[in-house]
Amino acid sequence: MLSELLQGTDIGGFLLIQDSCTYCGRDLLKSFIEAALNREEVIHVVGFDVSEGELKDGLKSSVFQRLHFHNAFADPLGWTDNSPFTVHQFSSSGLTELLNQTAQSKPATLVIDSLSWILRHVSPTAVCHTLQQLKKGGAVRTIIGLLHEDMHSRGIVGSVCRLATSVITVAPRTKADEGLAKITRRSKSGKVVQDEQIFSIRKDLTVTVLSKPTNFGRKQSNTEEQVDPTANLTFNLRLTDAEREAKEKLALPFVFSTEKKTALLHSGPGSGKILYEPDANDDYDQEDPDDDLDV
Amino acid sequence: MNLRHYVTTNMAAPMSSVDKTPAECLQLNSTSFQKKTRSKFISIPGTRPSVQNGQLLVSSGVTSLDYLLGGGLAVGTVLLIEEDRYDSFSRMIFKYFLAEGVVCRHELFVAAAQDDPDDILQELPAPILDDVAIHRPGDQPRMSCEPQDTLDAMKIAWRYQNLPKVQSALASSSRFGHYYDVSKIMEPEIRQAAKWHRFYHPEHPPPSSGTHSPKLESYSALLKSLQEVIQREGFDLNAPLPKSRNILRVGLHSLGSALWGDDLCCHDNPKNVHALTSFLYGLRALLRSSLSVAVVTVPSHLIQDRALMGSITRLCDNAIALESFKGSERETNPLYKDYHGLLHVRQVPRLNCLASQLPDHKDLAFKLKRKQFTIEMD
């Protein structure tokens, strides 16, 4: 499922990568950016957590003209007078304006690094509003966001996850270069699919999906075998083939020929049909013999 | 025995009805008992009186849920559904409720902040309708050329072959509770025949005046809009009712979530801690004096404050909570392998009586099959 998400076929969706201090999700975020750049998409990155250089490190330099980095790392709270991007510009109107500044033919992919920074300075309800409006509006094709789940309370993380169409939670594995991804995907019809995969990211930011972790498959091995009720009896309940044939050949009583059956089933339009609906007075109880007594 | 039940007024109802004697109250008061006389019991399609206390009931769309709630949802009450983690099953029940309204020809009022109400209505499940067997000439050649056992042809009970498996017809809305096929969408003709009103929160921007009231603007706007619909369309019991009465089904999706502007789910000590509770109080007062039923879904798994969740539950009449197994460790538990989740009944209403009808069994699990949402004893 991770590879499907990397292919980015989700239009109008919101992909959320949740990480924690034990495993950084930025490498996975960069792989998503790389995959999108390779698909000739226009990417706008709003960077609060890391600087431009650090984010672009590892990405192929040939595709940088399609990657627009909005530097929110330098002065996000607007302490100097000319800040390139402040956290208060993170609203649907502000972002749409920003996206329209760079002329583009098709809607762009918006990458937010990271939502945690914004959530500490803007109220969660406003952030959720903005994300919802961006999802609905046409200026943005998909939104990919990074959230550090250990920085916020469960309620805030839950509220943001509700808006997301896919959530990837990354966790470390015993081997240093591998990570465990728990993916939850919500389709438009409301169906929720979950998966767990082990992945590793190579130097060129391509993701290789390794096998599923073993404890996820435990569910399958625990299924009981179907108990066969005809076994272990003192009498024989099974049928051999010959016996089955003989059983089917047996003529049942009240079996009419097919012509008589059809004649009885499709009686002509003149036959009477009794339609009876029991009304309130008609409450008869078959077990009560005194029901007709007027006591 | 012929019990006589008298009209009582509910405390949350507006003050004007307290002055009236029972005889002056309207024949059909949604919170009163019905006097057991033979005369003019005006029936509204899609409703039936409860066998326990004579309340007027509507079906919630899920027949097993109707059974749990004592026959159905009483008119004038609120059903609170605590959502499951991914809002899949609560949304399904929400859609069943609205679909039942369309099939019974009730009016609908849908309010949502996340999805457009138009989109929610487009996704309603198709009702399973089977016309009563009519003699179609096309049937006969089929019968004669297929004498062998097909799935439909029965060998021993062949007289019952032509009867439909599920008997219901759209025209006869005297049937209470329908079944829906989740894999199909309700046909546009059926859907468009229904009258409905919408409230989509992004379309109502809050006024710029920053008053510090305990209510949130989003909830006040919603309550005002609902009150206006009730009064305009004639569902209000205080006003003279039009000749043909109908029920208004109110569906409020995901109240309390961040998209309504409420920070109940986001903070442990929310600023607007009384916003949702005062809204629910006002909603219940509005419903008690009108011919309407409401279903409210709340993402309770995000609300950290259990005391707040308790007061929200007490402010609604019926309350159920859905807990889906997806993603939790219960998914692999062999005890639960046939089911999709657990259903907890948090509260049953005590409408005009001292004790409420409690369900017999407390361990309930639900399963969403294609044609039925079943709730079973675990």
Automatic annotation (TrEMBL), chain A:
Keywords: Cytoplasm, Nucleus, tRNA processing. InterPro entries: Elp5 (IPR019519), P-loop_NTPase (IPR027417). Residues 279-295 have a biased composition (Acidic residues). GO terms for molecular function: tRNA binding. Its main location: cytoplasm. GO terms for cellular component: cytosol; elongator holoenzyme complex; nucleus. Pathway: tRNA modification; 5-methoxycarbonylmethyl-2-thiouridine-tRNA biosynthesis. One of its GO terms (biological process) is tRNA wobble uridine modification. The keyword Protease does not apply. It holds the Pfam family Elong_Iki1. It comes from the Eukaryota. It is found in: Cytoplasm; Nucleus. Residues 267-295 are annotated as: Disordered. Belongs to the ELP5 family. This is Elongator complex protein 5. It comes from Oryzias melastigma.
UniProtKB/TrEMBL annotation, chain B:
Keywords: Cytoplasm, Nucleus, tRNA processing. The keyword Metal-binding does not apply. InterPro entries: Elongator_complex_protein_4, P-loop_NTPase. It is found in: Cytoplasm; Nucleus. Belongs to the ELP4 family. PANTHER family: ELONGATOR COMPLEX PROTEIN 4 (PTHR12896:SF1), PAX6 NEIGHBOR PROTEIN PAXNEB (PTHR12896). This is Elongator complex protein 4.
